[in-house]
Design brief:
This protein is an alpha+beta fold. It contains six helices and seven strands. Strands 1, 2, 3, 4, 5, 6 and 7 form a seven-stranded antiparallel β-sheet that branches. Strand 6 and strand 7 form a beta hairpin. Helix 3 runs antiparallel to helix 5. The protein is elongated. The chain starts with 7 loop residues before the first helix and ends with a helix.
């Protein structure tokens, strides 16, 4: 040590301060490296989602139960169809409910105007010559019950999900489009001379880029 220079200990002794050792602060790259294990573990906990057969069986069971117990109507399920895009264009009534959790999606019911009137008549025990607000409300409530029952079954593989308020619309040439690579699961039911389609679409919630997320956490802690 050169003349005139004093150590930290000597300065602390002369000024009466107590020396307390603290570990050196890590730079951002070191922090990022330390967070990688944590990020990998969390990504490894992501649920795989329901299998197609599981979703098909859940839709069939929920729909058949509701029609038998609440509407006193017999329906027969057809085989499942898996479509990448929304399956076609329709004229009639469509109702849908959104789902949100670790997975996101929607459940929809579609049928002709005549089928919607029949369902509403059985549900509310009154006749409907046209599709009015009460018919649309009945279809929305039916969708909410069926999708809610399906949700209760598949939550074992997708985690807890919340349901949105149901929406019902009537129109011509109806269609929709959902982003993502996951397919719609479509189950067609025969209800007398009418057809009812129950459609489910689920995708995992988008995850931020892992490296960018680690850098964000490192900067927040610096």
């Amino acid at each position: 040590m050169a003349d005139g220079e004093r150590s930290v200990a000597e300065v602390a002794t002369a000024t009466g301060f107590q020396i307390v050792w603290a570990p050196p602060r890590l730079d951002n790259e070191a922090r990022i490296s330390g967070l990688k294990t944590e990020g990998t573990a969390r990504r490894g906990d992501m649920m795989d989602g329901p299998k197609r057969e599981e979703l098909y069986e859940a839709v069939c069971r929920a729909t058949e139960q509701v029609f038998a117990t609440m509407l006193n109507l017999e329906i027969e399920a057809g085989p499942p169809v898996f479509e990448r895009d929304f399956p076609g264009h329709f004229d009639g009534v469509m109702s849908f409910v959104g789902m949100a959790g670790a997975w996101l999606g929607s459940g929809s019911l579609f049928c002709s105007a005549a089928c919607a009137r029949r369902i509403a008549s059985s549900f509310l025990m009154m006749e409907f010559p046209t599709v009015d607000a009460e018919v649309l409300d009945a279809m929305g409530e039916l969708t909410n019950i069926i999708v809610g029952n399906v949700k209760g079954t598949i939550e074992q593989s997708v985690g807890p999900m919340a349901l949105s308020t149901p929406t019902s619309i009537m129109g011509r040439d109806l269609t929709a489009h959902s982003l993502g690579r996951y397919k719609w699961t479509v189950v067609s039911f025969q209800c007398g001379d009418e057809r009812l389609d129950v459609m489910m679409h689920l995708v995992p919630r988008s995850q931020p880029d892992p490296e960018m997320e680690l850098r964000r956490k490192a900067l927040a802690r610096s």
